[in-house]
């Protein structure tokens, strides 16, 4: 879960913020939320991906291209998190 800054003193998760969007968008955002159980040195990587997802959903309308972009971002997140996990 990431605290997405969009209003002063109010933090929402991606799915809370974008819950009214297309079902496929919301489902992908669930997977793009950082897992708070990640180790401290991996969490910043996951947070950065969540911020990118938030910005893309804000900038793009629902549709197949946004869904594809978020799905590819999820694939990239998996790679980046695994890379950070293997760092000393």
Which keywords apply here?
single chain; 88 residues; mainly alpha; two-stranded antiparallel ribbon; 2 strands
List the helices and strands and how they pair.
Layout (H helix, E strand, L loop, with lengths): L3 E4 L2 E3 L1 H4 L5 H10 L10 H17 L4 H23 L2
Antiparallel strand pairs: 1-2
Gyration radius from CA atoms, angstroms: 13 Å
Compute the number of structural domains.
1
Reported for the largest beta sheet, the result is: 2 strands, antiparallel
> End-to-end distance, in Å?
25 Å
Helix residue percentage: 55-70%
Portion in beta strands: 5-15%
Mean residue pLDDT: 89
Structural shape? globular
Folded structure, characterized:
The protein is mainly alpha-helical and 88 residues long. The chain has one domain (4-86). Helices cover 61% and strands 8% of the residues. The protein is built from four helices and two strands; from the N terminus they run ββαααα. The protein has helices at residues 14-17, 23-32, 43-59, 64-86; strands spanning 4-7, 10-12. A two-stranded antiparallel ribbon has the order 1-2. A hairpin with a 2-residue loop joins β1 (4-7) and β2. α3 (43-59) runs antiparallel to α4 (64-86). The protein is globular. It starts with a strand and ends with a helix.
